[in-house]
Hints:
Layout: H1 5-21, H2 28-42, H3 53-68, H4 74-88
Helix pairs in contact: 1-4, 2-3, 2-4
Amino acid sequence: xxxxxxxxxxxxxxxxxxxxxxxxxxxxxxxxxxxxxxxxxxxxxxxxxxxxxxxxxxxxxxxxxxxxxxxxxxxxxxxxxxxxxxxxxxx
Length: 91
């Protein structure tokens, strides 16, 4: 059964709240997936520029993560984010 847009949005919001509240720590590659799917789902594709070399490196990884999912629709990204939360945050 296909989810309605309202159901998807509600499930996405609940997944986001679970992710925001978790105390679990994930490896950088998993965090980049969370970041990219959330950014795509919310259509906030801005990457904030910072001065330090370390910050620019992190920004490059974020940009690459966004580039890898550029073909996803907003709703597909929401579902991927929900799936990621359900996979890694079982509390």
